[in-house]
Structure prediction request, 1990 residues.
Amino acid sequence: MRRPLADATARERAATDLDTSFLVEAPAGSGKTTLLVARILAWIRSGRATLPEIVAITFTEKAAAELRLRVREAIEGALAGAGGAERPRLAQALDDLELTPIRTIHAFCGDLLRQRPVEAGVDPGFAVAEPLQTALLLDETWERWLEAAAADAPPALQEAVALGVPVQVLRELAERLVAERDLLEDLPTPVPEADGADLNREARTRLPALLEAAPARARQAVDSLVEHLEELVAWVRQTEALAEADQLTALLTELPFRSVAKKGNQVNWGRELLARARGELGELGERVAAARAVRLHNLAATLARWLSGFVAAYRERLRRLGLLDFHDLLAFTRDLLRDRPDVRRDFQSRYRTLLVDEFQDTDPLQLEIAFFLAEDPASDAAAAWDVVRLAGGRLFLVGDPKQSIYRFRRADIETYERARSVLAAQGEALRLATNFRAVGRLIDAVNHTFTGQMQPPDDGAYQPAYAPIVRAPDTIEGEGPLLLEWPADQAAPAGVEARRAREAAALAGLVARAVAEGAWPVRDRTMRALRPARFGDVVCLFRTLGGAAVYEDAFRAAGVPYRTVGGRHYYARSEVGWALAALTAVEDPYDPVALVAALRSPFFGVPDGAFLAHVAAGGEVSYLAPLPAGADPALAAAWPVLRELHARRTRESATAIVEALYAATEVLATYALDPHGDQRVANLLRILDTARALEAAGRPTFRALVRWLAAQDAAGYDESESPVAEEGDDVVRLLTVHVAKGLEFPVVILPDLEWERRADTPRLVVDRRPHAAALGVSLGKVGDWKVETANLAELMEREERRAEAERLRLFYVATTRARDHLVLPLLFGEPRGFAAFCAPLLGESGPAARRLLVDPDAPPPAAAPPAPVPVLTSREVWAAARETVLTRGRRPTAVVHPGAGRMRGEGARLGALVHAALARADLAGPQAADAAVAAAAAVLGEHGERVAQARRLVERALGAAPYRQAAGAKRALRELPVAAVVDGQLVEGVVDLVYETPAGLVAVEVKLAPADAAARDQLRAYCRALAAAGHRVTEAYLLVVGADGADAIRVPLHS
Amino acid sequence: LRTAGVGPDALEAAATSGGAESRTSAAKLVELARVARQVAASLAAAGFVHPTDVLWEAARAETTAALAECAGLAVYGFTEWNAAERALLRVATAGVPTECFVPAEGGPAFEPVEPLLGWLIDQGYRIERPGVAPAIGLRAVVTRLFAAAPPPAPGTAGLEIVAAPGEEREVREIARRLLAAAADGIPFEAMGLLVRRPETYRSAIRDVFDAAGIPYTWGVAPRLGETRAGRSLRLLVSARAEAFARAAVIEFLATADLREGSAGAGSPAEWDRLSREAGIVGGRSDWRRGLARLARRIEAAAAPGTGVDEEGRAIRTGPPPDAVRALGRVVGALLDATGGLPEAAPAAELASGFLRAFRRLCRRGDEAEQVAGHLASLEALAPLATVLSLEEFAELLDAVLDAPVEPGPEPREGKVFVGELHQALGLPFRLAVIPGLVEQGFPAPPRADPILLDDERRRLHAQVAGGRPGLGLAVRRPAEERLAFRLAAAAAEERLVLSYPRLDPASGRPRVPSFFLLRVAEAATGQPHDFAALDAFPVHRRIALVPAPVDALAAPLDAREWLLAQATGARPAGSAGRAACLALAPRAARGRAALEAREHGDHVSPWDGLLADALRETLAAHHRPADAPVAATPLEAYAACPFRYYLAHALRLAPAVEPERALTMAPPDRGLLLHAVLARAYAAFAEAGLLPLSPAAMPRVRPLVEAAFADVEAAFGPKGLAPFWAGERARLLADVLAALEAEARDEATAWVPAAFEVGFGDEATPVVHVLASGRRLAFRGRLDRLDLSPEGARARVIDYKSGRHPGGAGGRLARGTALQLPIYRLAAEAVCRARGVEARVEEAQYYFLTRRGGRRRLRFRADDWTARRDDFERALATVLDGIAAGRFFQNPAPDTCRACDYRMACGPERERIAWVARKRGDPVRAAYAELEQIE
Ligand code: SF4
Prediction:
């Protein structure tokens, strides 16, 4: 019999007690998805909710898809053994699967808003702006807004520019404001500046007085205090001529006060005098500093407020385009639920229960949404989420504060803790402990590592207390973490880069050997049988992929296949850079640097000397200029290509131009022949995907593509390279801890443990404390001063503590991804970054960690010998073969006539008008033309000369023999559709005129162009179709109408 | 609502029929009723009829009479009829025997058709199910679709499920299968591509099919609004609506096919930069002023084209005149053509105004004519006097341009049919393809209609006689999607290809296949499938992510795949393989030679800036005769990076200004401005007798500086947006004044500024230096300023710098990147001699006079010269020899490259550094490498 789980009761209640709202703390590997599925199933079985009434919110699309799948499996499983009332409920649930709101929060908010667009104040047909589109819009809006808003910008802008604040910094701040736009009310306000005139005057009198007061001895000797005073006094003089306001600005932004505590020699000054001078100067310096801080605060605060105008412009642009970005989805939904209790009630009746996964990493707005939805409909509508009266069992939150790692995306652990207490007061907080994921020794090591280190701080709830995880009953013992160490008798390489390269080489070698030798046994999917690890079982988890390139190099060198998931070096790859140069050159014939870059690149392969020869021969560096005679052949080949592409670029799609560039240069072969050619080709092909994505986002032009690529490159936003391996391929994966969240892997390596980087001061620092939120603004350091709001330092300090706490949690997430093996390269013993957190593992009392010395002299693996040359196909052979296939395929089986040989343009429109008029004209005679053409013109929206022309043609047609005969015929049908299979071919079309004579039918086709063989064939085919339908056709005419009259040509019925 | 026959009365009735919880929707329904009434009244007043009303009118009129001649009526192509259609059919069939063809084979997929069948029975129709051929092969699978527990189908012949990495790749695989089918004798026109979400596939189908030569036709023609002419018209309206905001104008100019040709006279990219640089923001007068400013600058710039800045980089000194003139022309035409149009007017008036403007600005052409025709059709709205804003007019225009491009969809013959599912309804194909079978794709997620929720719709249904007026319900959407899939799958007679993008190609993130595919696998096998099992389904084919997967290698679709196939096949064979491949792709051979030499070689090659010996003469003749006087900055540039020297000085390439930079002042501009201001100011001081500056003279200095600034500004700027310019100006002015103050305070008694902007190296002032080797060198250049001591015995040279102090002590040659000061010192001696001044030149200095530069100085003194002369000569010789020999290799280093305007020509930094590192040992670099030893 299996032993019960230690947390069995909690699990049981969480799964089945539908009358209580829960917050379940589910640590890594505790099987929370199983729990979510069980609870959803319980709701269905109970009949208290149908699947469409159960909302489950997941962190990612992928998680949503997986949960849906698991729910489906669970329902199918349950259905097999169900009876009674449960059976129809489960069957219904299966039918409802597609309607189930198991979604990400953004998708779910989109659903809610689409149901209530009017009440939410959003465009009923809104679309969601994808990240690409958002980036494009931000880009465009920034330029437009800045150009428009600069006209009436506050004086602070000019002041900031004069100080040296670059425009790029303003843009960064503006984009941060967009991201935090629900908090703009909390932007710091400018404060009144104390009357600076006094301070200015005082400084101007006191500084010279202090210098005067210095004893002669001090002035004659080299004395640091006197030197400093002289410097200050000189400055006072320098600015004497300025207007008072400018003097003050200069005082506040330029006066070079330094700390005086240690300046001046007592021997020179005498003790007392020195102390007094220091004191006075220090005090003055402090007052200036205080006034400066106010000035800079005001500068930052004023500009931030001015930049909120950009936020408004961006939102307006979204609104105009009927778009909501991700932030909008949350904000509009929260506002809708908070401000419209009637709508809230309606949704409460529509959705019976709400389950939220990964609750520790949710946006604060999401939290509000969840609580409002879970409100007891019988209670009074609460005005704020934290006073909501929850309906029993309506809310089910699953999270683990130890895994809260999305601070940069607005997740806030303190908000989580508040939610926890609000919920616990009305429902219950449960805690799971069993871990089904890792082997026993890894579980022990994790507990040992974090128990002492993860502790709640005194000054806030930003770190949870560590709760140990517990082995599941049949957990195997496995191995403890593997610590990689550097041999003590070998000198460690010097420098961070060199060390990282050594570590990378050691890891790559380790993986290559372990896989080759089957040294890492891992459990298979059933978690029972053991098998040797493959490359695909191994992941390297990084904090950022910035340094991953070194590891990629090492894996390449060791012949270990790998794939970097979301690494950002796309624009740092030369093939992409060269392509950008070539595209820029095509777009702008006057950018000589781009042109030279393109020409010397592997796209054209022009040697550098050719440029000199070209210029010396009088050539211009623009392909629109003629190419002097005797040019280098590569240059001569490139010139017409670029010129042609430039001319085509506005006429054809952006993709067509890029493809044409690739084709004309055969550059894909150039790169494909390289050892890592697949990757390089994929990177080039990705430009085509980008072009298509831009096209889909409404930017179809070539220019838009070039600008987009250039802006991405210039702004240093890098992207991941085009993947060439993928999930499921047998390759080592390199990814970030954040991406690995929620996943598990047999073998986890945590490279670069010593990496540590203090983040730069962000432009906007946010304290989300409810009812006391605060924003701090920084425009960076210019010269000696930090242009920032007064609250920034304190907020930064607060932020730093939280960031540090999050770093430990990140390490927890990283270590708990491992199922069977965890590799920690602690090569050089620096207690920095994650390496510092490993200390408990190194101690004597630690659990059984294994240690392995790396071999610094291990040789690199040998390269494989080249394969024999395969048989290649020439372009001609291939093209001929393809043409044969195409010719076969093009053979029509059907004659589908109406469009065949139809004219385009002017002729087509005239033709359409004439036919439309003839179709409706009274057959009485030419005099009917006027009315018929007028009516047809009204329908087709035609006027002017074309109508007059049509009238003349219609008159002639109506006056011609066939129409006159038709007028007297027993029956005359116009625009008669025919369709019949004749000799195995389908004939389908519309006959302009068919009338009945005693002998049989007469068919007439009207042509505005001279009758050709095709027209005759067509008419004959129609006649045969009529015949096939059982009619006797006696005559057929082509009525050719033109400027000189109408000519009825009789067409023999058999060719 | 009109098609459903739901009028204002029904809306109002429904409003009162709900419970208390539906207060909001009641209000909405009442509001809708009001809107409906108003629309009807407006239409009637203007004499228009709503298209849907035609159906209702027909249903009311004596349709039977019109059909009297008909022997029978056949109705087909529907799975659902709305109220208007039902009414019409009821009337029409009253007198004529009618047969309705409804796709309803029975089974769970056909559930959405049941109501229609029920209604037909109510109308007295008899349901007849024609005998279906026994379900074998593909048909057997399709008929089992969505069955609860289907028995296994007899096989999967003709069926294939393709999992491709991304939409474009999916289309490639589809195209490959179309070609394979063509090879097997299936004509293209018997093939159909049935697309659930055409917008996702449109561009990929265009690109792939065009490249593969597969003829195809969309069931619908593209919209006029998507054509270049259509977009141009929209942008024209936007440009006017946004009061000629700069960005909007440029966008129009970049898109439209302008009559005012721009050939050879600047591209939109160039216009973009020019207009930014000129500080143009928008508005007619702003454009006119800015363009005039640009025109003045052409005249003011002494030598339009390129010059050299204080760092010795080539820069553009004046805007290119042709481009300025062309911009003036096109913008002038735009302003003239649309400037007079009102901000708001009745639609017809705006339409004729924009029609005139469009015709005047854009070239004629087929599509332009169609666009103009549709714009002209708005003139028919003359009876409507409602005044529209330009924005509203733009929306109206969008609606009008939603019309298909004539002559409508192309004929199908000989072509693959591509269309939405409903367009293909009932069309049989020997090969049918359904792409996009991915979660959230097909089935599309059921979405409630935003205006009328399901509940409200149900209440409306209750108001209308007959109960089901055909307002669709979101809850029924899944069933409808199933039906659509079932019908589409049934279109396949011989082969059915189902495909999906199994990952997002940009990120590599996997995507979840549609569960329809699970149903297909279940229908085929009779076994329940999950996604893992789907992977193992025998006809499931997973296309690898690499650019040339096996399928493409075996059957290349287009020239690109053919090329990749050869290269990929040849790659494992090493150099022999490469040679074999390049023999087939001669154009790649050049690029390959460049790539191999640059990236894999360990020698400096002709693609790394090494000029062939044969070019030496050209170099000497065109660029630098051996005995020509040399300027200092280019020499330093060579020492820093020979390749940069080559581009900047030998080729004289002037980097284009990046557009963003044009918003504000770029660093080179700042330097130019500073020099110009100081030169003018000192000339003025000298004239006013203010030199040397003294504290007492300072009150008179300030106005002179401001005047100098104003002069320079008139010729040079302003540049960029007003507040930025003002801020930069203020900053520069403050810097200059502070520097002058400091000079008056500290140096009044020590130095007398004696000469400014002193050229040297010409015949009047030759500066010649004879190296220890006996080699003679002549220098040329310009000294910013020469000072003498009051008694005239000592002299110094000052060179102004606007940037940051590089740190470090003076007297350094820094690998030959700091040759200017010693050369200036030599020059100063020559200048003194030439002017008959007996002064010992004590030092040459850089003066970093801005706040950024910390007002610090960097000096090269006379005794430095004594100590460093050998090094100086060695560095000079190395540099000059290198130039003469045409050795222009790169010398990349993060710091040098970061500030380099030629980065694009060198490839991205990380790789650039790695390539060069491999070549460090090449003997060609040896002499240059020795510069490292010169401190
Ligand atoms: S980018 Fe670097 S290597 Fe290239 S020219 Fe400039 S300085 Fe030289």
Summary: The mean pLDDT of chain A is 88. The CA atoms of residues 256 and 784 of chain A lie 8 Å apart. The pocket of iron/sulfur cluster is lined by residues B 641, 643-644, 890-892, 896-897, 900, 902-903, 906 (CB under 6 Å). Chain A touches chain B through 182 residues (CB under 8 Å).
